[in-house]
């Protein structure tokens, strides 16, 4: 068969294939390069030569094109090797589909040929060669650089049209080789560690996989159980919501939205009222400070007046005393004279009975006696007159005393009125001076205030310089502001810089004052009081920073300071350096412990082993991580019991829930009291450095997790009967009830968390065997610590309760997380957001207040050790034990 006949046959074959189902999708045939008009085949010049297989003619025209250029090598039609028809097809498309390898190679050898030319359907010559199963053409095109990953408008690549297995395999290999290398994935440290721990032995690896599958199955079942629990809680919550809506008269969505708007309004109103209360508290503090100053002034004046009055009274009393002494001396002398007169009269009387010797002697004696009597009578009259005069003077003195007392009473009333007027005047002057300074600062952009509902100003933000200025200003009587700045100052200034600023301000204020006036300076007194407060309340800032401590001691040791001013600060530093300020001892006597029968012999109420506090405790300090006495360490095996005692084993059924609650409360209060205020700042417990920045918060968190898991283990470990397990369940509920009575709200949260865990919550038969009383108590505990409305019930209960108490720290940690994430540290203009600092300080200071009042309870080491050293089940083990107690319902 000649080449012309073969080309026509091939073209006819391709046209037929074009209508077939395989080629119809992409219309990939050489026939698309042809136009069928009136039965004649019209070809472009190059494409026609390729279709006929005229290699000689094709080579001639291409040689002419190369030698003479395009203008001379082409005819009038302006032929080009890459010229295409209206459908976008070129000569290379024809060569790829006609098995004319020589023409194909000749075309591919041309430097200007476009090997990836596309028609209107986006198909390339490689698409056509693959569809026609032309392996040699496919190889040539790929070798010439054809794109094996080219995609047409139908989204197909050349390999998608390959019917021949060899063509398909060849294209697949080229596609794999052309694919960009996949960069190796970077393995995490956890994945590397896991790969290093995987066993290389196939058998062991198989066992490991089986365990993993089993664990995954258990985890899946637990997830299903948890989901069922959540669905059940959701239905209960929806039912409660419907009941509440019905009780509130909410019938439709519009009514519900109106109630929500009202609630939002009430919440906003509550916040405004809280701001008003805060302002009133500040005003009260200012009044109290001004009143204290005026009271001190008036007390001093009253003391001076009282001193003068007392001196006058003392002078009157001395004169009266002298008069009384003179009167007594006169009475004594008069009595002696009367006695002498009586004696003389007796002698005279006795002389009348004797014979008269001489008349002249008797007459002279009688005359002398008469004269003496007259003299005595005269002296008696004078004495009586003096007595009357003294009595008159005494009456006058008493009258003067009553007049002085009345005058003092009037003076006190006048002083009270004057004090009130001076207080009002001083407060007015302080407010005017402060307002003037605040207006200047606010106009300069160094401070920002917000207005409350009553128009009062509240500090919103300020520069660090202005905050320190207000801290040291004696006209600012805001104790809460002082607490806030000293607690949170590290958010905007370091402790070293703060101390340096305070010392500089002290020296600046003291430089212009004489020595005797420094002790009376309100500015210097305020600075010393601020330093003293810092030392007494946040001693850890100095104890943990040797350089800061050195700077503080250098300031106090400066000989130029007034001793009266600096002595109180030195005393505070000395007291804190020797030992931390002890927590106030409980004033009430501890209640009598309720001991298990196994411990009854060890503790005797009237004996030597139990008198107020157990002697067996030795130097024990209740709390985690504290060394126990070396003389006796129960359950540890390191010490020996005292002679006559055996090592007893106690269990939860042997103990009274009230006493267990007391011992857990003692442990948890020690953990709570050990938390420092700084650990709550800047979300220290969530950082990578939490072990060093918030160690005590982590200790309490881990202890709470230990207690939760202990309760779960106690319940699921009872498999004897449902009744026995229900008894333990009831005892745990009573434990939570006594936690509430002891005001240990952290303990209540632990109990509810344990009873709501997946391993315990699913024990429906156990709960059905319990009494209604215990179920009612559990519902009360769950409502108390519920997280609904941001722990509304728990917040109200804690704030209505007097210490000692243990709050749930997670409640305050959640508030601090919200404040830290939802409020900026800096306001516009770089001002410190004081409102955020104040809110943070309010939460932390509330926790500080609860730490100051301890419990008055007797520690029982055996009960505490039982809980500390209890062998816990992990979550998977506890869930398996729960399944062993009550199998899954079908």
TrEMBL record:
Q: Which PANTHER family match?
A: GUANINE NUCLEOTIDE EXCHANGE FACTOR, PROTEIN SON OF SEVENLESS
Looking up PROSITE patterns in the UniProt record yields: ANK_REP_REGION, ANK_REPEAT, RASGEF_CAT, RASGEF_NTER
Keyword Phosphoprotein belongs to the record: no
Instruction: State if Kinase is listed as a keyword.
Output: no
Domain spans labelled Ras-GEF: 656-888
Which residue range or ranges hold the N-terminal Ras-GEF domain? Answer: 455-581
Q: Which Pfam families match?
A: Ank_2, RasGEF, RasGEF_N
Instruction: Tell me one GO biological process term.
Output: Ras protein signal transduction
List the keywords (alphabetical).
ANK repeat, Guanine-nucleotide releasing factor
Q: Where are the ANK repeats?
A: 87-109, 121-153
Disordered: annotated segments: 435-460
Q: Its Gene Ontology molecular function terms?
A: guanyl-nucleotide exchange factor activity
List cellular component terms (GO): plasma membrane
Q: What name appears for this protein in its UniProt entry?
A: Ras-GEF domain-containing protein
């Amino acid at each position: 068969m000649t080449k012309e006949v073969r080309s026509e046959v091939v073209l006819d074959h391709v046209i037929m294939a074009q209508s077939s189902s395989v080629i119809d999708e992409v219309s990939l045939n050489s026939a698309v390069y042809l136009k069928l008009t009136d039965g004649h085949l019209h070809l472009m010049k190059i494409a026609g030569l390729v279709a006929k297989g005229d290699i000689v003619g094709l080579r001639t025209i291409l040689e002419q094109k190369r030698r003479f250029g395009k203008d001379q090598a082409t005819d009038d039609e302006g032929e080009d090797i890459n010229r295409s028809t209206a459908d976008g097809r070129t000569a290379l498309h024809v060569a790829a589909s006609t098995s004319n390898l020589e023409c194909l190679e000749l075309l591919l050898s041309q430097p200007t040929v476009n090997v990836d030319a596309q028609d209107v359907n986006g198909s390339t010559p490689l698409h056509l060669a693959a569809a026609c199963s032309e392996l040699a053409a496919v190889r040539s095109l790929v070798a010439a650089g054809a794109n094996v990953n080219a995609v047409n408008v139908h989204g197909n690549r050349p390999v998608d049209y390959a019917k021949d297995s060899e063509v398909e395999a060849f294209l697949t290999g080229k596609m794999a080789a052309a694919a960009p290398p996949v960069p190796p994935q970077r393995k995490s440290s956890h994945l590397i560690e896991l790969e290093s721990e995987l066993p290389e032995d196939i058998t062991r690896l198989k066992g490991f996989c089986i365990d993993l599958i089993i664990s995954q199955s258990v985890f899946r079942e637990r997830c299903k159980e948890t989901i069922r629990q959540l669905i059940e809680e959701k239905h209960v919550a929806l039912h409660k919501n419907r009941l509440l809506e019905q009780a509130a008269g909410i019938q439709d969505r519009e009514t519900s939205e109106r109630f929500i708007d009202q609630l939002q309004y009430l919440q906003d109103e509550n916040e405004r009222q809280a701001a008003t209360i805060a302002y009133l508290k500040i005003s009260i503090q200012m009044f109290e400070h001004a009143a204290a100053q005026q009271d001190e002034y008036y007390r001093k004046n009253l003391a001076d007046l009282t001193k003068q009055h007392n001196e006058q009274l003392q002078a009157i009393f001395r004169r009266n005393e002298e008069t009384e002494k003179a009167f007594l001396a006169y009475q004594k002398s008069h009595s002696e004279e009367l006695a002498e007169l009586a004696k003389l009269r007796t002698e005279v009387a006795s002389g009348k009975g004797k014979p008269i010797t001489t008349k002249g002697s008797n007459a002279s004696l009688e005359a002398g006696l008469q004269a003496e009597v007259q003299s005595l009578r005269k002296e008696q009259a004078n004495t009586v007159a003096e007595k009357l005069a003294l009595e008159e003077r005494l009456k006058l003195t008493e009258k003067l005393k009553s007049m002085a007392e009345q005058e003092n009473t009037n003076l006190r009333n006048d002083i009270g009125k004057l004090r009130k007027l001076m207080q009002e005047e001083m407060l007015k002057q302080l407010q005017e001076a402060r307002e003037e300074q605040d207006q200047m600062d606010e106009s300069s952009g160094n401070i920002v205030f917000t207005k409350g509902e009553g128009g009062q100003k509240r500090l919103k933000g300020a520069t660090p310089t202005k905050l320190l200025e207000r801290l040291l200003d004696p006209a600012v009587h805001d104790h809460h502001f002082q607490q806030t700045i000293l607690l949170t100052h590290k958010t905007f200034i370091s402790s070293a810089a703060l101390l340096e600023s305070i010392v500089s301000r002290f020296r600046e204020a003291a430089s212009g004052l004489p020595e005797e006036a420094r002790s009376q300076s309100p500015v210097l007194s305020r600075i010393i009081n601020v330093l003293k407060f810092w030392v007494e309340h946040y001693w850890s800032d100095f104890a943990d920073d040797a350089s800061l401590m050195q700077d503080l001691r250098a300031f106090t040791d400066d000989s130029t300071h007034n001793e009266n001013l600096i002595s109180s600060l030195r005393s505070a530093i000395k007291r804190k350096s020797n030992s931390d300020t002890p927590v106030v001892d409980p004033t009430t006597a501890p209640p009598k412990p309720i001991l298990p029968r196994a411990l009854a012999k060890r503790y005797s109420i009237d004996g030597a082993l139990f008198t107020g506090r157990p002697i067996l405790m030795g130097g024990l300090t209740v709390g985690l991580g504290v060394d126990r006495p070396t003389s006796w360490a129960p359950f540890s095996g390191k010490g020996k019991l005292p002679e006559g005692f055996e090592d007893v084993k106690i269990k939860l059924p042997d103990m009274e829930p009230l006493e267990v609650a007391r011992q857990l409360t003692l442990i948890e209060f020690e953990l709570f009291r050990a938390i420092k205020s700084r650990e709550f700042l800047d979300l220290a417990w969530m950082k990578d450095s939490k072990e060093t920045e918030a160690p005590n918060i982590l200790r309490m968190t881990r202890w709470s997790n230990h207690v939760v898991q202990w309760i779960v283990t106690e319940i699921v470990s009872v498999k004897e009967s449902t009744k026995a397990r229900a008894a333990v369940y009831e005892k745990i509920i009573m434990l939570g009830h006594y936690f509430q009575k002891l005001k240990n709200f952290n303990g209540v949260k632990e109990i509810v968390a344990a009873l709501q865990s997946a391993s315990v919550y699913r024990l429906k038969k156990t709960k059905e065997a319990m009494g209604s009383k215990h179920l009612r108590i559990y519902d009360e505990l769950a409502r108390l610590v519920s997280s609904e409305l941001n722990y509304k019930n728990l917040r109200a209960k804690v704030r209505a309760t007097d210490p000692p108490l243990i709050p749930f720290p997670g409640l305050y940690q959640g508030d601090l997380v919200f404040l830290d994430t939802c409020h900026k540290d800096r306001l516009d203009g770089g001002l410190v957001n004081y409102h955020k600092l104040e809110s943070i300080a309010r939460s932390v200071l509330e926790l500080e207040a609860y730490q100051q009042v301890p419990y008055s309870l007797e520690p029982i080491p055996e009960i505490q050790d039982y809980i500390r050293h209890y062998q816990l089940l992990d979550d998977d083990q506890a869930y398996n034990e729960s399944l062993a107690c009550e199998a899954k319902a079908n």
